[in-house]
Amino acid sequence: MSKSILQPVWPEMNPAEMSPEQMALAALRHEIDLIDDQMLALFQTRLAIAAKVGLAKDAPHGPHTKLRPDREQTVLSRVLARADPDKVAAVEGLWREIVGWGLAQQGQLQVHVWAPVDPTRAFDGARHRFGTAASIRMVRDPQAALAFAAEGRGVAVLAVNTDDPWWVGLRRDWSSLSVFDGFGQAGGQPSSLAVGKIDPAALPTGRSVIVTAGGDAGDGGGARRWGLNTHHGWTLALTDARLTPGDAEGCVGAIA
């Protein structure tokens, strides 16, 4: 092994005095350095392209945020399908960060989190979803968080396992907002929902989120429903039915 490879890894040692184990470790570290160089170049190229995407003609504009949950879902699903089964969690975490920093090239995402019950879970869910590039802060008023999201400058993450029926407003006061993601225990129902002024065409493919007057037993059409909360005859639920936000069924969004 050449000195040019060994010296950067073991600068304080004489290559001639290195053991076979140290030589092998130096070779592995050199291989990692080469991979890091390639990853850095590719990542910076990806960021540059992401900045151009924000200016593309098919990007959301006007009152909607820059978020494209449908595109993020497609990218993540494609990557996870190609990942080794034992590395899926690591790959998902990495790609969430990559997508988050790509989005930041179009302007830092602002996220307001309201969760009086188990706030750490809601905050961690938001951090995992939007990455360290996003500016995430806890707030005390769900209506203020909704108003912030309605301005189109950012999104709100709000807990649903509370006594505050903020979600009823998605059918009335905040009808311009859509639910586009949910956070909670793995494989379980979401304990908080992400809400934003999302282009309806950019919502992810998944269960619809509905706010209806009545129970969560379903409408007899065969689609299952999962109740998340109730308040004075109103019900927040998930359904397998393919619905359009704003329609008569009370659809207010979708989560992957």
Automatic annotation (TrEMBL):
This is chorismate mutase. One of its GO terms (molecular function) is chorismate mutase activity. Gene3D superfamilies: Chorismate mutase. It comes from Brevundimonas subvibrioides. Its EC number is 5.4.99.5. InterPro entries: Chorismate_II_sf (IPR036263), CM_dom_sf (IPR036979), CM_II_prokaryot (IPR002701). Signal peptide: none annotated. GO terms for biological process: chorismate metabolic process. Residues 19-110 form the Chorismate mutase domain. SMART domains: CM_2 (SM00830).
